[in-house]
Amino acid sequence: MAEYRQILDRLYTHLRPMAPQGMTLEEDTDLISEFGLDSVNVMDLLLEVEEDFDISVPLNLLADIRTPKDLACAITRLLEAG
Amino acid sequence: MIRTATPTINNRPLRCADFPTLAQALDYAAQGVTGYNFYDGRGRLQAALPYAELRQRARATAKRLHGLGLKGGERVALIAETCPEFMEFFYACQYGGFVPVPLPITINLGSRGSYIERLRRLLHSCSATAAMAPAEFLSFLQEAAAGLKLRLVGSPADFYALEEPAVELEPSGPDEIAYLQYTSGSTRFPRGVVITQQAVMANLAGIVGSGLAVRSGDRCVSWLPFYHDMGLVGFVLGPLASQLSVDYLGTRDFAMRPRQWLALLSNNRGTIAFAPPFGYDICARRVHRAEINRYDLSSWRVAGVGAETIHAETLARFADFMAPAGFDRHAFLPCYGLAESSLAVTFAALDQGMSVDHVDRRALESRMTASATAATSGHGERVRAFVNCGRPLPGHEVIVRDADYRALPYRHVGIVSVRGPSLMSGYFQDAASTRDALGPDGWLDTGDLGYLTEAGLFITGRCKDLIIVNGRNIWPQDMERLAEEQPEVRVGDVTAFVAPHPKGGEVVVMLVQCRLTENERRADLVNRLQRMTYSEFGIKCRIELVPPKTLPRTSSGKLSRSEARRRFIQRVGWNQPNEITAEAPKAAVSS
C-alpha cells in the first residue's frame, strides 16, 4: 500500500508540467483558482492519474476535490479499496 | 454477470417509430432480441439490457412507484447517468403514467455546492414527488431534496425494496406528457420543456424514418448524455422506437478517452453515431495518428453533427485524419434541432456529406444578407462559410423572420421559426416563457439566427447570447447573476459574452463594474469569480474589473451584451487579426 506522501509526490510529477510560470505547488494550492487548471487540463490530469495508479476515479469524487491534498487523499482511498 | 452485447440483426420486422406512445414502442421492441449495451472507459462491456428485459424491469418498477402512492402525471426526477437503471426508471414512468425528468450531471473539481444548488432548483421547478440517483450520486440528490416534500429520494436499491402491488398499469396516452426536458433553460432560471407522447413519436418517426432512413443492420454508438435532447431522444428513444441495438460509452469516459468511441464503432460495426462538432474535434486532437490503423470505420454510414454551430474545417480535419481507417466523409450528416421541437427539425441529405455555402462577410454583418461568393476570395476576412443543415422533417415547416415577425426571403438572416407536430406543449408551469416562445399561430421562435436557400437551412448564430463552450450551453445571465451575488458587486453591473480570439478559438469574457480601489481586494474578487465560474460552469473565463458607469446600456437601461462585446473586441484589438499588439488595459486581468 502506497503512502500518502509518495502518492502526493507522484501527483506533483503530473501536475508540474501543467503549472503556469513561476507557480509553486503546495499541498493546499487551489487547483482551479490558484493553479489555473481548466476543464481540459482536468481531463488530462485524471487520465494520467488513472493510468499511472491503475485506478478509476469516479466522477462523484471530483465534487469534493479542490487541492493536491484532496486528490492525493482520494487516490489513497481508492488504492486501499483496491 | 458476464454477458454478450445484444445483436445487431433482429428477429422481428423493423418498424420505424409508428407507435402512438413510447410504452407501445417498447412493447414491440421487447418481442425482439436487440437492446442497450453499456461499456466502461476501457471498452469493456459492463451490462447488456435487451429490450425484452427492460420491459419486464420497467413494469415491475412502475408498480413499485404506484405502491409509493404516486399519481398519474406526477414527476419522477432521475439523475441521468449512462446506466441500465436510468432506462428502467424512465420506461417505468411510461408504463405507470408518470412523467420522468432527467437531471444533469455537471460535476467539476470542487463543485459540490453549486451542483447541489442546481439540482435543488430543478427538483423545485418540476415539483418532483420522487427522485432516483445511482448510489454514487445519491448524496448530492439527498442534499438537494432536503426540505422539499418528496415521497422518496433513493438509489435503485431503495426503490427495489418497495412492495410491488398487483395494480393494473395505465401507461400515459398519446396526448399526455412523455417527459420533461431541462436542457434549454438556464441553470439559474430552469425551464422544463413539456413533450407529449405524440410530439416525441412524431419527431422519432421523422428522425428514424426520414432523417436517418434506418434499416436492418444498423447499430448505434453513443456517448451523449441522457440529460441532453440529442442523447435522450436521438440515442435512447430513437433506437428503441426502431428496435436497434445501441452501444453506450459514458460521457466523461469519452471526454477522457475519445478513442473508445472509435473503438466501439470499429469493433461492433456501428453504423450511426452523432456528436456535436467538439466531439469530432477532440477525436482529431487526442487520438494518436499511429493508432488510426487499428480502427475500421467503414461501417459508419451516418456521422451526425448538431447541437452547436458547425464549422466546416473541424469536420474536414476529422475526415482527413480518419480517412486511413476507412471513414467516409460522405457519412457526415449535419442537422439542426432543439429540445423545444423534441429534438430534430432539419436534416441534410444522407450520403452527401456536408455542403458549405460561402457568403460575403461585409454584406452579412452590415445588411444581414447572405450573398453567395467564391470560396477563395480572401478566406476568413471577406468570406464566411456556413454548413447546410438541410430541410425540415416531413410535416414540419421552417421560416426565417425579422424582428417584426415578417417572413424573410431566401438569403436574408433572421430568427429561425419552426412549426409542426414535434413541438413542445410549452414550458412546465411557466406561461410567460411559453408565450414568448410559442406564438398563437403555432410557430416556435427558436431564438437562433439563420437563413434559408433553395438548398436548405443555414444557422449563422445560435440563440444570440448563448455561450457554448466544449458543447456546454452557458447562459450569460447565469454567469452575471453569480457575480452579482458577490458583496462587492451590484446587480446590473456585470455583462458576460464570448469573443473570438484572433489566434483561434473563443474566449468567455466577463466585465464587472466595480468600485474597489485596493489592488489586493480587486485581485481577491477576480480570483473568487474565477473559482466560482469554474465550479459552476466548468469554464475558465477572462474577468476584467472596469470602472463604474462604463458598460454600455440599451435605451431601456439594460446592459447591452452585444455592444459591450463589440467595444471589448475593439479595445483589446481582436478585430485586427494581423496586428495584435494590445494586451488588456489598466484593469485587473486574468485569463
Which features does this protein show?
heterodimer, A: 82 residues, mainly alpha, 4 helices, 55% helix, B: 591 residues, alpha/beta, Rossmann fold, Luciferase, domain 3, GMP Synthetase, Chain A, domain 3, 3 domains, five-stranded mixed sheet, 31% helix, globular, disordered C terminus
Brief digest:
With 82 residues, chain A is mostly helical. Chain A has 4 helices and no strands.
Number of helices of chain B: 17
Shape designation of chain B: globular
Residues in β-strands, percent of chain B: 15-25%
CATH architecture of the largest domain in chain B: 3-Layer(aba) Sandwich
Total number of distinct structural domains of chain B: 3
Tell me about this structure.
The complex is a heterodimer of chains A (82) and B (591). Chain A has helices at residues 4-15, 39-53, 59-62, 68-81. Chain A has 82 residues and is an all-alpha fold. In chain A, helix 1 (4-15) packs across helix 4. The longest helix of chain A has 15 residues, at 39-53. Chain A is globular, with a radius of gyration of 12 Å. Chain B has 591 residues and is α/β, with parallel strands linked by helices. In chain B, a hairpin with a 5-residue loop joins strand 25 and strand 26 (506-513). Helices cover 31% and strands 22% of the residues of chain B. Chain B starts with 21 loop residues before the first helix and ends with a strand. The model of chain B is unreliable at 577-591 (pLDDT under 50). Chain B folds into three domains: 22-275, Rossmann fold; 332-461, Luciferase, domain 3 (Roll), CATH 2.30.38.10; 468-590, ANL, C-terminal domain (GMP Synthetase, Chain A, domain 3, 2-Layer Sandwich), CATH 3.30.300.30.
